[in-house]
Amino acid sequence: MRLIHWRIMIELANLNADIVSCTRCPRLVTYREAVAQQKKRQYREWSYWGKPIPGFGDPNARLYILGLAPAAHGGNRTGRIFTGDRSGDWLYEALYRFGFANQERSTHVNDGLRLTDCYIGATVRCAPPANKPALEEFTACRPFVLGELRALRHVRVVVALGKIAFDHYLRSCRDLGFDQPRPLPRFSHGSTYKMPSSGVTLIGSYHPSQQNTFTGKLTRAMFHRIFLVARQSLSKPQHNDDN
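Predicted structure:
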């Protein structure tokens, strides 16, 4: 088991090095670097990360969270996914509540945050203009999600934050050669599907973006319910998952 753990850590470290050095998408490179130079008034004293954002979390994770893309002044500033923005405030509070994080807020990479049994990735690793990646940028980034899914050998539950992440995960499963449910799963908040080949439980959730949380489309109770279901799924003995 210890040997497997070290293999996973090495695979993730190599993958994250590839992510950070990626320059496949000229539009994203130009935008993320421009944001890092221009900065936001309240973050003038920050040295922005300004590079692609690697995944983050526990190499032995059974819960994998897939988001959309880093925020221009969140992950693109801090260098860690969902760190230093309002979406992250919602996510880490929920993870803390259900035992996946040691603290309920994350503001910078050295703030002591640790994830337990949880790993976080994104469909696109660079902050996109208007928070809208182009189709070819999703395609260029998919190998990074595939790499995480291959490396994270213990994943049993996937929470997809938003329809784009939900559909992207299904495409990734297809690329990995896994059978998919028929009819194909459809996204809705709280939708839950068992993937037939892998046995992974896929849970759909509205993304905790300000657009959703400020308008009340996503409430704290709704978001907490997602991670309650995830925790309950992980609490079941694996051989009884189909019962």
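Summary: Residues 2-240 form a domain with the Uracil-DNA Glycosylase, subunit E fold (CATH 3.40.470.10).
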